[in-house]
Amino acid sequence: MSRYATTAVATLAGTTVSWERVEGGVCRFGDQQRRITVRTLEWTRTVLTGAQLGCGDDPLPVTGLAQPDAAALARALGGRLPRSVEWEWAASGPTCRTYPWGEEQPTPRLANLRGGPGVLTPVGAYPDGATPDGLLDMAGNVWEWTSSATLGNGFVIRGASYASPGLYAKSTFLNAAPAELESPGIGFRVVREP
Fold first, then answer.
1. Do residues 58 and 49 make contact, with C-beta atoms less than 8 angstroms apart?
2. How confident is the model over 119-129, as pLDDT tens digits?
């Protein structure tokens, strides 16, 4: 476990994390719209920050963690990383929104993507890009680790980063990264059973 993850786990008792309930339903998963039932879950409203983990007052997303470290922090918060289909359900909802906020093409008002500031921004800085359930930053700023494994010891990442083109902000877009990758462009959010 990385030094940052070890420090955060040791200080989780004083965390202030906002949770949003996302009702379950049938997700039409991926470009082929395969029907998969998703249970009701509570989600962290944003990707996690150092401030939320009790490590200072940094409002930027926690990045630079390998997937196993992000998963350990999620467990320490009483939850887990979302599966890829759960992430897509939270982003697209029962109406299969093209983007987490709806059908409007990405703009600098909605998400931190390529053509924007070019760096990480504080979580919640794009409230117009929220989902109807109140989840912020589901597209842009940082990719998000999931618990869905890929071939070759990797995991699915979702949501796009500040360096991604607008196409990657689509609710159905997914990518993958090696489990051990400690990238400045990948963060995580947590889900838990209500």
1. yes
2. 999 999 999 99
